[in-house]
Specification:
Blueprint (H helix, E strand, L loop, with lengths): L1 E6 L3 H11 L5 E7 L2 H11 L3 E4 L8 H10 L11 E6 L4 H10 L3 E4 L4 H12 L4 E2 L5 H10 L15 H11 L4 H8 L3 H15 L4 H10 L6
Length: about 220
């Protein structure tokens, strides 16, 4: 079961999300919070796999809570660090930048279709980050420009094999593992293996952060 925590200051929104998500037989809502401060506490206590996080809430905003949850590491009983899916009505660039900077694994708008929300939760639980289609490569490019890292002592991109670098480039184009496999005429498992090694080498934790890294390091273009 995928364990989910809902964070939104509106009870009716949380109730709606709970109803939608629990229609799926592989998703369980284990906790709810109405503000960011409580969300951080409950994330440690309940160890959800995915946190559906609102952005603007009284009593602690979602971006600050996202940063704490991601930085806090595993919760109870040594479980893995929760992945945060930012779910908001706002598609303004600044909110997207804030979510990416805070370490969110995905970003989706509240007016998405029910199946899109369920698919987003499954994808993040399975280790695949995502950004809503309304968020274009322009946003990623601008974020990468704003957050350009200092020159590293070691060129991380140079540590990648030619195949790993190519797969990261295809990922930055927005392709899925299956689409990359078809493009490069290899097995999907091969893509997953190469991508995992590339992420380990450059120090990124998910696909979204890997795309940002690709733009920052010249492996992708806007």
């Amino acid at each position: 079961m995928i364990r989910v925590m809902l964070v939104d200051d509106q009870a009716v929104v949380r109730a709606g999300f709970r109803f939608l998500l629990e229609q799926a037989d592989d998703i369980e809502v284990v906790a709810e919070a109405s503000n960011g401060r409580t969300a951080v506490e409950l994330a440690r206590r309940h160890s959800p796999d995915v946190v559906c996080m609102d952005v603007r809430m009284p009593g602690g905003d979602g971006l600050a809570a996202t940063r704490e949850i991601v930085a806090g590491g595993p919760g109870a009983a040594g479980s893995t660090t929760p992945v945060v899916l930012v779910v908001t009505t706002f598609d303004l660039d600044e909110y997207v930048f804030g979510a990416l900077e805070a370490g969110a694994g995905g970003f989706i708008l509240k007016d998405c279709e029910p199946e899109e929300l369920i698919d987003a939760v499954r994808r993040l639980a399975d280790g695949h980050g995502l950004i809503d289609q309304a968020v274009t490569h322009r946003v990623i490019t601008e974020f990468a420009r704003r957050k350009a890292p200092p020159a590293p002592a070691v060129d991380a991109a140079a540590q990648l094999t030619a195949r790993e670098a190519e797969i990261v480039r295809q990922l930055a184009r927005g392709l899925s593992n299956a689409e990359i496999a078809k493009e490069l005429v290899v097995e999907t498992s091969t893509v997953k293996s190469h991508l995992g090694r590339a992420m380990a080498k450059v120090g990124t934790r998910d696909r979204v952060q890997t795309v940002v890294w690709a733009y920052q390091n010249g492996l992708a273009s806007g």
